[in-house]
Amino acid sequence: NDLNIQNKIAVISKIDLIDDRSELNKKAKKLKEIGFKRILGVANNLKQTYSDLIEEIKPFCYESEALYEEDQYGDITLRFMAKEIIREAAIENLYEEIPHSIAVEINEFIEPDEDAFPYKIDATIYVKKESQKAIVIGKSGSMIKKISVLSRQKMINTFQHKVNLVIKVKVDDNWVNNEQKIKKLGY
Description:
Layout: H1 2-6, E1 9-12, H2 21-33, E2 38-41, H3 47-57, H4 78-94, E3 103-110, E4 119-127, H5 130-137, H6 142-159, E5 163-171, H7 179-184
Parallel strand pairs: 1-2, 4-5
Antiparallel strand pairs: 3-4
């Protein structure tokens, strides 16, 4: 059906990291061969690329009834959002020292029953080695404090409510290879 093909837009991310333009052209050509009529590239340092993408998508968007309650952000829970916020803050601060082999588990997530009380969130960051644990904690706890402050602030902005956050760091050298543990952690 031609209509379905018209709605397909391919997006190549991180185009600013591709040095060889012929490589970019090859990717675009392959995408056209499999049926994409429009191929756009985006890059963090090229804000206009995101504006162009939004303008390209707008004709296919329409207003409708809300799919979620006003206080629901989508089909994911606030608990899951908290986990991802912590993981993102850890990776942002440790991207050079530790690869993406960081997992986060939310041990306790208590939503406030009144406006005066904060969310109470207890989380654990898992790493594979003792040396990584030392890096995540940092000298005199400086790195884990930085991660905690950034995470808490993002949660406050997202949840629009006060948050008490406690983050621990544990070593589990097998979490990456253990399928049950990966599922338990939600990855």
